[in-house]
Amino acid sequence: MTETASAAPRGGKRGRKGLKIKRIFTTPGVHPYDQVKWELRDVVMTNWRDGTVNFEQRGVEFPDFWSVNAANIVTSKYFRGAIGTPQREWSLKQLVDRVVGVYTKTGLEHGYFASEEDAEIFDHELKYALVHQLFSFNSPVWFNVGTASPQQVSACFILSVEDTMESILDWYKEEGVIFKGGSGAGINLSKIRSSKELLSSGGTASGPVSFMRGADASAGTIKSGGATRRAAKMVVLDVDHPDIEEFIETKAREEEKIRALRDAGFDMDLGGKDIVSVQYQNANNSVRVSDEFMEAVEKGNDFGLRARLTGQVIEKVDARTLFRKMAQAAWECADPGIQYDDTINDWHTTPNSGRITASNPCSEYVHLDNSSCNLASINLLKFLKDDDTFDVETFVKLTELIITAMDISITFADFPTEKIGKTTRAFRQLGIGYANLGALLMATGHAYDSDGGRAVAAAITSLMTGTSYRRSAELAGIVGPYEGYALNAEPHMRIMRKHAAANDALKTVGRMDAEIHAEATRQWAECLRLGEKNGYRNAQASLLAPTGTIGLMMDCDTTGIEPDLALVKIKKLVGGGSMQIVNQTVPRALRKLGYREDQIEAIVAYIAEHGHVVNAPELRPEHYEVFDCAMGERAIAPMGHVRMMAAVQPFLSGAISKTVNLPESATVEDIEQVFMQGWKLGLKALAVYRDNCKVGQPLSAAKKAEEKKAEPEIRVVEVPRPRRRRMPSQRPSTTRRFTVGGAKGYMTASTYPDDGLGEVFLKMSKQGSTLAGVMDAFSVAISIGLQYGVPLETYVSKFVNMRFDPAGMTDDPDIRMASSVMDYIFRRLALDYLPYEERAALGIFSASERAAQQRGEDPAALHSEEGLDAEALAQSAPIEVGSGRSASSAGTAAPQREETATRALESHQGRTADAPLCMTCGTKMRPAGTCYVCEGCGSTSGCS
């Protein structure tokens, strides 16, 4: 525990007590950097569109235990200074020194520490924790602190708008300023009069949905204008607003437009040049529901929609019908989400200063309008000791340290608007959270959707928040409570008692959570005692953020509160390339469950091949649930996600950034059940996503087209036996040398004189080796198939995305990364011998075509169809087929190939089919809370 002691006055200020900081990780007289082995690396990141290098910095310095991915992300995103100049940061030491130096200096100047020695200990402990990836601040801290830029430390903002044109235009401006810096903002539009109400001039009001168009266009423009990430925003509307039905159906209608335009031939894919014509695509929408409304849904009663100015009911609707429309729209396009207004405000620490009406874009920060919150997240797996016990004592000490640093940051922080700065300084909202919960549970043998898993998560969350508020009370005794505390002392203490009561009601299941819970109980008791005496320094302390980029920075296997995405991961290698590995938490979990090393080896090998544990050798079925993931063969049920959120929500000041994933087969009733149970279980906010619900995505569009097809006429036809068309003795051919993941090879492709591919020969390794023999046999099999008329496109659809070593970087500018030698070979053959239309259906493009797409041009314009015989290029020997071949079967070939290729990739990676491609490096992104994060370069879709 940290003690307090009298401190001498500084800067003429009245003397206060300062913190006596005790060492946790460091040793007196030894700098924390000296406890680490450092190494120099080269960071070279290529552009997926044309293979050019888009980032390069050589000789950067990182600890030897940092992964390649973490070092790449920090170097490219967080190091400041122009590349190639002496001012450019080149070491993690410089980055950490820049940030921590400001925190330590500010804390010393403002009386946080009892002495300069305590300030030095604080400095060393913070540096140790950051270098060892024990926690991380949110991205704006790394971007801005210690630079010449404004000292912006917050990632989460909430704005407000009044029912005047001046206020609405101010909203547009304030959002733009926040988006420009790469952060996100949320707003509730319920004060704006509905389209069913009159203006003072006698005309009819436009309504909030119409004003959303302008804000959406602004956000889209700033996104394409080169910001660090897209403009992330949240738009909220109260369920009793007269325009609520229009708001609910807004994005669902736009999805219908996407479908119609796509069917008409427009480019409506993610990043497509025509997608910008569709509105409302830059915001998450949420409906703010009340207990009154939810009770009306349960009872089947009518519900009143109220005028904004008078509060009078101007229309009554059937509550169940309105609730059904919410679920229907979410089923169709994942919007709107839902926020439970009365629950949020029942846990509000400062109600006398105003209600909570909105949230940030990811829904985890819920507090006063015109406010902000800086975040930091703890890497939970770092506290799992070798004996599989949780290091409670160290966790408590680190939490103290983080809260102290986060509060100091508000003292020196700059803010995008004067209103936000004033509110944030007056209430000092903090957002401590964690990452790697899913990995921690798996490593300790706990199923994510189990009583034991939920008990561990709840106990850790309670301990974190109890410790945070206890430290906040200590800080209040040293540097004073937050400015708004005097007005809100009674309700703030009421919420502290609610948290403590929830902790007392927590039922433990095993030894691990019982030990954590015991310490949490002590922390809450001390928190209440000190709070009664000193008040609190912070109106808010904790929440659970998505931890996108910073999760990768800390080398976390799982983000935020999420379970593991998949059991098999792709690991980057030093010097380029990558390899597929089974998560390292899997062997640890198996040891915890009592399996022998030979059994573990066999189970891990099975998972590496199949991507799941079902029927793994010697793995007992009752242990399957420990390895359940967000997706895949054994996906966690939707209510499993809801129950986990409900377990930790009573121990958080804010809310939780998390999306409840549902399978494509889920019904509207399933989503209604999730929304209803979220309310009953005490959640503050909830978002859902049904796989492939975005009709603008290739996979779902193909499926919708198949659903609309009429049943084909059943006909019996006689299919002639295919005949082999042998290659002539002399034929044209090309030989290409290639490198995949460091392995060299040669490919010779021969064509018929009339320009149809008929033969492929591959050579790798020395003659006489097993690999050389296998490649020779494979070449013969492929060549004979081509000569018998098997379309090249069939081979391409089967072999691209196949994964095995060697894999990684290639020396081909058109194909920069390959998941295997087979993946490279058939991508190259497709580029050389298939027409553009067929390659495009398979998602295979050349560097010039990708560059054209990025410029907003149609890559098809690069190709002239004159003189091209598509049939000859795509198929070496035609198959004579009778007239019974139906047109419908030919028409569905491309969607079937597309689905095959997509599912082959994603079933192994465990990623959603609808996840967007990263606009920086082209890698498929992964879910992180309600957003997405790129594992390749660290870019996010709006989260920090």
Automatic annotation (TrEMBL):
Matches recorded under Gene3D superfamilies: 3.20.70.20
CDD domains in the record: RNR_II_dimer
Keyword field: Cobalamin, Cobalt, Disulfide bond, DNA synthesis, Nucleotide-binding, Oxidoreductase
Location of the Ribonucleotide reductase large subunit C-terminal domain: 154-689
Pfam families documented for this protein: Ribonuc_red_2_N (PF08471), Ribonuc_red_lgC (PF02867), TSCPD (PF12637)
EC numbers, comma separated: 1.17.4.1
Cofactor dependence: adenosylcob(III)alamin
Domain TSCPD: 728-832
Region (Disordered): 880-909
UniProt domain Ribonucleotide reductase class II vitamin B12-dependent N-terminal: residue ranges: 44-133
Low complexity: compositionally biased ranges: 882-894
GO MF annotation terms: cobalamin binding; cobalt ion binding; nucleotide binding; ribonucleoside-diphosphate reductase activity, thioredoxin disulfide as acceptor
Enzyme class name: oxidoreductase
InterPro entries, per database record: RdRp_reductase_class-2, RNR_2_N, RNR_lg_C, RNR_NrdJ/NrdZ, TSCPD_dom
PANTHER family listed in its UniProt record: RIBONUCLEOSIDE-DIPHOSPHATE REDUCTASE, VITAMIN B12-DEPENDENT RIBONUCLEOTIDE REDUCTASE
Function in brief: Catalyzes the reduction of ribonucleotides to deoxyribonucleotides. May function to provide a pool of deoxyribonucleotide precursors for DNA repair during oxygen limitation and/or for immediate growth after restoration of oxygen.
Listed name of the protein: Vitamin B12-dependent ribonucleotide reductase
Annotated source species: Thermostaphylospora chromogena
Lineage: Bacteria, Bacillati, Actinomycetota, Actinomycetes, Streptosporangiales
